[in-house]
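Lecture notes, structural biology module. Today: joint structure prediction for complexes of two components.
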Amino acid sequence: MATAAPTTPAPGTGNASTRALLTTADTRRRLTDRAMTVVVSLAFAIALVPLISLAWTVVSNGIGRLSPYFLTVSMRGVFGGMDAGGIYHAIVGTVLVTGAAAVISVPIGIMAAVYLVEYGRGPLARAVTFFVDVMTGIPSIVAGLFAYALFAVFFGPGVRFGLVGAVALSVLMIPVVVRSCEEMLRLVPNELREASYALGVPKWLTVVKVVLRTAVGGIVTGVMLAVARVIGETAPLLVTVGVIDSINTNVFEGRMMTLPVYVFRQYAQGLVPCTEGATDCIATVNIDRAWAAALTLILIVMALNLLARLVARWFAPKAGH
Amino acid sequence: MAQRIDIKDLDVYYGSFRAVADVGMTIEPRSITALIGPSGCGKSTFLRTLNRMHEVIPGARVQGTVLMDGVDLYGSGVDPVAVRRQVGMVFQRPNPFPTMSIAENVLAGVKLNNRRISKGDANDLVESSLRGANLWNEVKDRLDRPGSSLSGGQQQRLCIARAIAVKPQVLLMDEPCSALDPISTLAIEDLMAELKDDYTIVIVTHNMQQAARVSDRTAFFTIEGTGKPGRLVEMDDTRTMFSTPTQQATEDYISGRFG
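The predicted structure, tokenised, for the full assembly:
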């Protein structure tokens, strides 16, 4: 028995009015969509211009001087337009001073963030949040003067050594660490805390083993970004750590060179007045060294960022399936 | 190991707001007690007072007594952390720890408390808890996979396994099936029927059929209006409650006339 199949119109025909309804272009919407796409893409391109330009300038100017030799010697005994000298002492200084700053700031920052998220209530927590925000805006030179003044009280005027610089950088770093860790801790779902409490786990163990453990990827990223933020600071280190041409690995005594200060110093020295016909004199050597050191600094920051991503991925909650 | 709970004159507050007023009831050991009632009537709030999870919320407090085998859970010197080890809890949404594997989730109560456990004991505990939660056969080949790799119903049974691994006396369940499909719900209900041989179970549910299916006794809560506290209307054997309740409000709610 043949049942009447519902009449399906052939493709391409169909009800004319429905077709008109579905195909009429909303011209205005399309135009707005186009225009906004163009504007947004343009803004992105404009934002990229300085970045690419900067990267290109630093690489093209710095790559010439950058060599294993440059990375492994200090400036001791280098003068005039000599084709010698390097940044080993500045790398050591930057690593030690920034490392010491991180050692000071990271525990304080994380614990302050834990306080704000897990324990802080009422006026005290609001005050801490307020002052953290204020500290984020402190000009770096003020942080340098503060650290210098603090140590000058104990060691007398003119005091300069690595730890003073580390304290100055900590003043800049702590608010950044607190802020980013706070965000990360707030992202941890409350359900996990409750699940932990319901198993009879005390609060402090819940904080350490559930909250911090769940947020550790984000915390590491935040700490690395904070390090990247202060590793390029120049003014506070100029005031607190000073300059030196030789290697100093003791942050508790004596001046140290750091990469940003090195760049500043070399660039400030400017062209070397070479005598006519001198073969071992390069007029632009100081400026070349400055660019090469700047390139090294950028590479270090980049390496830190990559490391942060790797660590964050390593600790990230395992995705399902 | 199951124990009886007597609640007397219990008032529960959020700050100055009284959320639940004047509750008195007895929860029998080795049985399932269901708490039913319309949304916002304080069932979950009341449930959370039974293992002192209520006070985790800032400003929340409790007046009255909750006696477990005659000991007041809110008496002086009682440690809320110790209470929670005796009274486990399963939440509405499955919440396995995302950084832990299936086995680690089961052992969470031990591991998070920094208690030492030998490898063999740990394996035994994982197996017995997962068997207890009817999950062993489904996950025994992938114990080191993350807990979040399981389906919603499996995750909820993992949370039950995690709760019973601590060996509590009482198990509180706050709408444990509301985020699950009917098949997973059935699996959890079967599990509850098995667990009641060993544990005192209190379950909050919005699903009256579920209350009728699984529970031995049922308590009906209601609220007179917004801003007023929730109250216990009546409590009786589930069969009586669903056939011949003594209160008109209970009958109206059960027959679907409100709520």
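Point to remember: The interface with chain B takes residues 121, 189, 191-202, 205-206, 209-210, 213-214, 315, 317-321 of chain A (CB under 8 Å).
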